[in-house]
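Dear Dr. L.,

I hope this message finds you well. Following up on our conversation about the binding site, I have prepared a predicted three-dimensional model of the protein together with 3-hydroxybutanoyl-coenzyme A. For your records, I am including the exact sequence and ligand specification that went into the calculation, followed by the structure tokens. Please feel free to forward this to your student if that is useful.
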Amino acid sequence: MAAVFPVVAVVGLGTMGAGIAEITARSGRRVIGVELDATAAAAALHRIEESTAHSVERARMTAEERAGLLSRITVTHELSAAAEAQLVIEEIPEQLELKQELFAELDRICPAGTVLATGTTALSVTRIAAATQRPERVVGLHFFNPAPVMQLVEVVRTVLTSAEVAEAADAFTRGLGKSPVSAGDRAGFIVNGLLFAYLNQAAAMFESRYATREDIDAAMRLGCGLPMGPLALLDLIGVDTAKTVLEAMYAQSHDRLHAPAPILGQLASAGLLGRKTGRGFYRYAAPGSSQVL
Ligand code: 3HC
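The resulting structure of the complex is given below.
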């Protein structure tokens, strides 16, 4: 049976975009990565090369399969290249106006049948869809970090998303080896709706000097059986991303649990964004490294 969406464009090759490009190419699909920033594009390709080399080392794929995977990914700064895809996944920063502009542009560029998916975590999919003339073909596809590893994808339907598009998005994620869940269009969807108040409270607890970062993280790992503590997870997600997500959720929910803890703003202003910059709540061996010093 032919794969759903044999050609997929990923617009924005940051941490999430690069991971999604990798797993999509791994599923046998051709991937067109669109990234305006040349440094970010090079970093994304480097990350995919490293991650797939690790998979070969772990005997999860052969060297030939890796070569095939890498050959299926092309990276360009031309958005018009997305017109070749049947599915476009947007992974650009969490700013509504930016996403609306991009979707209006994609709507002009792409054939009428192309499905446009947003990777937003906390913005309204409906408002993003409203920037297009095809809101019934717009859906949310929310992957989790690190995308090559995490099993879940939230498939987000608006009131206008057609059943056919939601089903195709669902089948696409299953084809990537993921387990989709279906959610309506509400800030944070299922996971972040529950997770981010907790992460925010952990940052506030650390900020109040109630406990050390190590003890906060150890408590949640060892007391609740979580794979990592909240401050380590904030570093993985990115302090700037977490702050932006919380701001967007707070703007929609007006729930004070989502009002970003001041320390998130301070770390973000200082460029201490977590693993990706080599320092956040913790210090790492190098930017992008998971090794805590
Ligand atoms: N890319 C590719 N593979 C990765 C990776 C990455 N960024 N990070 C880890 N891995 C792989 C490792 O290579 C390793 O594979 P191997 O067994 O073949 O060597 C495997 O994952 C396990 O990694 P580690 O042994 O280094 O460490 P852990 O066992 O602690 O697992 C973890 C790492 C998967 C990140 C785990 O700690 C975890 O599940 N943490 C929670 C992550 C989480 O909650 N993510 C959701 C964040 S919220 C979100 O994304 C929403 C967004 O909107 C903000």
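In brief: The mean pLDDT is 96.

With kind regards,
A. P.
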